[in-house]
C-alpha cells in the first residue's frame, strides 16, 4: 500500500537543482557506458564463450535493438505513469541484466543480459524530460546540455576503464561493475529526484508498441547485419522490406488511435520533423568517427595507414572527445540563450564538417587524431545540447518524454546506419595483409567523406527548423 502522506511530502519538497542534474547526468553516463562495456573483449568472445563469431556478434546487436525499442516506449510510459517511476524501472532492469551477464558462461545467457542492459538508454530522454518539469527555465539549457553530453562522456570514460579491467581481471568483473553502478543510480534517483507530477491523458497503446518493436527489429537487423549476411541476401531483404511494411501499417494505425504511442501529427510538425531528421544525420556523423578512428589508431604501423596503438592507449586518445562534450555543456547553454538552439545545432554540425575535412588530409599523426576528436566532441556537444531544447519547444509539456524518446531513437538510427555504412566501406576498400583484411587509406577517406556529408546535410536541415512554440494540451494533475 502507498503512504499518501509520504507521497505528498515528496511532491511538495523543493529539490536541489544541482543535485537533480548531477544524479540524472550520472544515470546518463551509466547508459552510455553500457554501449562500450564489451568492446575491449569483443574479439575474444568466441574463445571465451566457445561460440562462433556470428553468434557472439549478437552481444553487440542485442543491446542496440533493445535500446532502440525501449527508448520511445519508455518515453510514452513516463508521460503517462511518471518519468521517475519509469526511470527507476529501467535502472532496475539494468541491474538484473548486469547480474545475468556477470553469471553467464554461455553466449545465449550473455545475450539475454545484454538485452536487459540496453533498456537503460531510455533513462537519458526521461532524464531530460524530468529536468523540464523540475527546473526553472533559466537553469534548463545548461542542465539539458550536460545530460545530453553524457551520451559521449560515458562512452569516452567507459572504454579505457573497460580495457583496463579486461586486461587485468576476469571479464565477468565488467558486468559486476555495471550492476554496482546501476545500484548506485537506483538509490540516488529514488532518494534525490522528485516524483513526476505532470501526466498525459489516455491509455497505453500496446498494439502500437508491438508494431513499433517489430518494425524496428526488422529494419535495424537488416542494417546492422547487412555487411555480414549480404545486402541482397533473402534474410536481409525479408527483414528490411518486412520492417518497412510493418512501419507503414503501424503509421496508419497510430493516426487513427485515440491515444497513440507516438503522436505522428506532432512528429510531422516542421520543428519536430526537421530536428529529428537532423538528429539522424548527427548520429551518423558521430558514429562514423567511432567506427573509423579506433581502427585507424590500432592498425599496425606496417599497414601504412595504422598508428599501431593498443586498445587502452587508443581509447585514451579518443577520450578527450567525450570530455570536450562535457566541458561544452555550460558554454552551449550560454550560447543557446544568445543565438538560439537552431543556430547552435547548425554550428555543431558545421564543426563536424570541419573535423572530417581535417581527417581526410591530416589524420596521419596521433596528435592530429586527438585534435580532430576534440573538435568532434565540441560539435556533438553543441548539437546534442540544442536538439532536446528544440523538441521541447515544439511539443506539449505532457508529451516531452515521448518526444525526447523519439528523438533519441532517431539518433540511434543514425548510429546504426553509420555502423553499417562505414563498416561496409572499410570492408570493401581493404587489402589482404598477413592473412587479414586491412582497410586502405582510400577506405578511411571515403568513410570520412560520408561522415562529413551527413554532418553537412544535418546543418542544412537545421537551417530550416522553425522556432515557433506549441501551446500545451490539458494534462492530469
TrEMBL record:
Keywords annotated in UniProt: Membrane, Transmembrane, Transmembrane helix
Family matches, as PROSITE patterns: MFS
Domain of life: Bacteria
InterPro entries, A to Z: MFS, MFS_dom, MFS_trans_sf
Occurrences of domain Major facilitator superfamily (MFS) profile (ranges): 20-470
Gene Ontology annotations for the cellular component aspect, listed alphabetically: plasma membrane
Alphabetized Pfam families for the sequence: MFS_1 (PF07690)
Membrane topology, as annotated: Multi-pass membrane protein
Chain ranges passing through the membrane: 20-41, 56-74, 86-105, 143-165, 171-192, 204-223, 235-253, 273-293, 305-331, 343-363, 369-387, 408-428, 440-465
CDD domains, alphabetized: MFS_MMR_MDR_like
UniProt GO MF annotations: transmembrane transporter activity
Predominant localisation class: membrane
Subcellular location(s) of the protein: Cell membrane
UniProt name for this protein: MFS transporter
Amino acid at each position: 500500500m502507498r503512504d499518501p502522506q509520504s507521497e505528498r511530502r515528496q511532491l511538495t519538497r523543493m529539490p536541489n537543482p544541482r543535485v537533480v542534474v548531477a544524479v540524472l547526468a550520472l544515470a546518463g553516463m551509466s547508459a552510455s557506458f553500457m554501449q562500450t562495456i564489451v568492446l575491449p573483449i569483443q574479439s575474444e568472445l568466441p574463445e571465451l564463450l566457445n561460440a562462433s563469431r556470428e553468434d557472439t556478434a549478437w552481444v553487440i546487436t542485442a543491446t542496440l535493438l533493445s535500446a532502440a525499442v525501449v527508448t520511445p516506449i519508455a518515453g510514452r510510459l513516463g508521460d503517462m505513469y511518471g518519468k521517475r517511476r519509469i526511470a527507476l524501472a529501467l535502472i532496475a532492469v539494468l541491474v538484473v541484466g548486469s547480474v545475468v551477464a556477470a553469471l553467464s558462461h554461455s553466449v545465449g545467457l550473455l545475450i539475454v543480459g545484454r538485452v536487459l542492459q540496453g533498456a537503460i538508454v531510455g533513462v537519458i530522454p526521461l532524464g531530460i524530460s524530468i529536468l523540464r518539469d523540475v527546473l526553472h527555465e533559466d537553469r534548463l539549457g545548461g542542465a539539458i546540455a550536460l545530460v545530453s553530453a553524457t551520451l559521449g562522456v560515458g562512452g569516452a570514460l567507459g572504454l579505457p576503464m573497460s580495457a583496463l579491467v579486461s586486461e587485468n581481471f576476469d571479464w565477468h568483473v565488467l558486468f559486476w561493475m555495471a550492476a554496482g553502478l546501476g545500484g548506485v543510480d537506483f538509490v540516488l534517483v529514488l532518494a534525490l529526484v522528485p516524483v513526476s507530477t505532470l501526466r498525459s491523458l489516455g491509455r497505453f497503446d500496446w498494439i502500437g508498441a508491438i508494431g513499433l518493436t517489430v518494425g524496428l527489429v526488422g529494419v535495424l537487423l537488416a542494417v546492422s547485419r547487412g555487411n555480414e549476411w549480404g545486402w541482397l541476401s533473402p534474410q536481409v531483404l525479408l527483414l528490411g522490406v518486412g520492417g518497412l511494411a510493418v512501419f507503414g501499417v503501424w503509421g496508419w494505425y497510430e493516426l487513427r488511435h485515440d491515444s497513440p504511442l507516438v503522436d505522428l501529427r506532432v512528429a510531422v510538425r516542421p520543428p519536430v520533423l526537421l530536428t529529428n531528421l537532423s538528429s539522424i544525420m548527427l548520429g551518423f556523423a558521430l558514429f562514423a568517427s567511432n567506427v573509423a578512428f579506433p581502427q585507424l589508431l590500432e592498425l599496425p604501423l606496417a599497414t601504412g595507414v595504422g598508428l599501431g596503438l593498443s586498445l587502452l592507449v587508443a581509447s585514451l586518445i579518443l577520450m578527450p572527445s567525450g570530455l570536450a562534450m562535457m566541458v561544452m555543456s555550460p558554454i552551449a547553454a550560454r550560447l543557446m540563450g544568445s543565438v538560439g538552439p537552431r543556430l547552435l545545432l547548425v554550428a555543431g554540425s558545421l564543426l563536424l564538417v570541419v573535423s572530417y575535412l581535417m581527417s581526410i588530409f591530416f589524420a596521419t599523426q596521433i596528435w592530429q587524431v586527438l585534435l580532430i576528436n576534440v573538435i568532434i566532441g565540441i560539435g556533438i556537444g553543441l548539437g546534442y545540447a540544442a536538439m532536446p531544447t528544440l523538441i521541447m519547444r515544439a511539443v506539449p509539456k505532457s508529451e516531452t518524454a515521448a518526444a525526447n524518446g523519439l528523438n533519441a531513437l532517431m539518433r540511434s538510427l543514425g548510429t546504426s546506419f553509420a555502423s553499417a555504412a562505414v563498416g561496409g566501406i572499410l570492408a570493401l576498400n581493404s587489402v589482404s595483409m598477413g592473412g587479414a583484411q586491412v582497410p586502405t587509406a582510400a577506405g578511411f577517406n571515403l568513410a570520412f567523406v560520408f561522415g562529413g556529408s551527413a554532418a553537412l546535410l544535418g546543418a542544412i536541415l537545421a537551417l530550416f527548423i522553425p522556432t515557433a512554440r506549441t501551446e500545451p494540451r490539458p494534462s492530469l494533475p
